[in-house]
Design a protein that fits this description.
By secondary structure, the protein is an alpha/beta fold. It folds into two domains: about 160 residues, Lyase, Ornithine Decarboxylase, Chain A, domain 1, CATH 2.40.37; about 180 residues, Alanine racemase (TIM Barrel, Alpha-Beta Barrel). Helices cover about 30% and strands about 25% of the residues. α5 crosses α6. The radius of gyration is 23 Å and the shape is globular. About 0% of the residues have low confidence.
Length: about 425
């Protein structure tokens, strides 16, 4: 199986975290998001332990909550001692309403509104990650009006191509995010930030991309960022104490994907960071990263019920399910690969495109899936590794209600997010 939280009973029924998925589908309905709470906590602890072992005091992994944002997720992050990053007032509100400590919240984004800035400042969040000159000046004004000094990091683009899908590559010079080191704009922003009396510039942030597998990507990033820290010290006399390399470690969606040893990668990264800072006479910075996908992706599974099977001789076979791009838009956006299992049948396998129920030809969950040839209406299919960017990117296109999120633990099963109703769909209509 793709992951060790997935198995089959002797009768061939698929299990997730030890639970029969056909029974879960019967009890909670489909489409259905399942989340392995123990796996989420174990992934958090893996990052926290690696940071304690290899990086300096105060270093902290921040959960990139855009991967999966709902109240119970923030409660888990708080209990595990993680920081979080948020990219909107909605994510911030959700985190705070779940009791997440404001001082461990980092507010990201390339276009924060005045309302975003005012809300974050009023709530006493730990850091804003400032993106551009206009934002710096607006944040200075907001902090001055509140009579506070707001800690910030500056987002810079190191000019690194991580060789990932273009839409999730964020560290190149022409990115919409941050200021480029190469063009001199990053240094200009640093110097501006240091003149603003109500902003306390503590360090730098960068993010090169998502679903990164290459071993040397983050080392190449340090090759840019650490000398830039040295240049800042040389030109301004200020030694910045924080360095945030963002997130992006890839996860295993199919058997062909590499299973990354993240603690080993972090140990190598820490050693390289120490070597580079010592070479340039800099102190070891307070180190931050923002794992999201690698915290929650393999903790997720989505269940669907087959509604129809269509065979076009000489062309394709389709298995249409009761969800689709509304609950998992990633194939439509990125042609993302997933592993799909039939939950309760085996036998002679045939190739199907698993498609959704939306009125779009591009509403595809996965193409070229091997399923039993007798797959039919009423069967349950399971799509693996859906814990990241599924619930958080879900929509109500075609007026389809979003699925429930059910958390699984060895001791209990509980709903973290209830299934939307038709009344919810019209709840804001006037």
């Amino acid at each position: 199986m793709l992951s060790n939280n997935i198995d089959r009973t002797p009768e061939g029924v698929l299990t997730f975290v030890g639970y029969d998925v056909t029974q879960l589908a019967k009890e909670y309905g489909t489409p259905l998001y399942l989340m392995d709470e123990a796996r989420i906590r174990a992934n958090c602890r893996m990052y926290l332990q690696a940071f304690r072992d290899h990086f300096g005091p105060g270093s902290l992994p921040l959960y990139a909550s855009k991967a999966a944002s709902f109240k119970q997720m923030y409660r888990i992050m708080a209990e595990e001692g993680m920081g979080v990053d948020v990219v909107s007032s909605g994510e911030l509100y959700t985190a705070l309403s779940a009791g997440f400590p404001a001082e461990r919240i980092y507010f990201h984004g390339n276009c924060k509104t005045d309302a975003d800035l005012a809300y974050g400042v009023s709530q006493g969040i730990g850091f804003f990650v400032a993106d551009n000159q206009e934002e710096l000046l607006a944040l200075e004004k907001t902090a001055a009006e509140a009579n506070v000094t707001q800690k910030i990091l500056l987002r810079v683009t190191p000019g690194i191509d991580p060789h990932t899908y273009e839409a999730v590559s964020t560290g190149k010079v022409d990115s919409k995010f941050g200021a480029a080191v190469e063009t001199g704009q990053a240094m200009e922003l640093v110097k501006l930030a240091l003149t603003l009396p109500h902003l306390d510039l503590r360090g730098l942030h960068c993010h090169v991309g998502s679903q990164v597998f290459g071993e040397g990507v983050y080392q190449r990033t340090l090759d840019i960022m650490v000398p830039f820290l040295a240049s800042i010290r040389e030109e301004t006399g200020v030694t910045l104490s924080n360095l945030n390399l963002g997130g992006g470690y890839g996860v295993r969606y199919t058997a062909e994907d590499e299973a990354i040893d993240i603690p080993a990668r972090l140990a190598e990264l820490a050693a390289y960071l120490k070597e580079e800072t010592e070479r340039l006479g800099l102190p070891m910075p307070r180190f931050l990263m923002e794992p999201g996908r690698s915290i929650v992706a393999d903790a997720g599974m989505t269940l669907y019920t087959v509604g129809s099977v269509k065979r076009i001789p000489g062309y394709k076979q389709y298995a249409a399910v009761d969800g689709g791009m509304t609950d998992n838009p990633r194939y439509a956006l990125y042609q993302s690969r997933y592993t799909v299992y039939h939950a309760h049948k085996s036998g002679s396998m045939e190739r199907f495109d698993v498609v959704g129920r939306c009125c779009e030809s591009g509403d595809i969950i996965q193409s070229g899936v091997e399923l039993p040839g007798d797959t039919c209406r009423g069967d349950i299919l399971a799509v693996c590794t859906t814990g990241a960017y599924n619930y958080s990117m879900a929509s109500n296109y075609n007026r389809l209600p979003r699925p429930a999120v059910v958390m699984l633990t060895p001791d209990r099963i509980y709903e973290a997010v209830r299934r939307e109703t038709f009344a919810d769909l019209t709840g804001l209509d006037l």
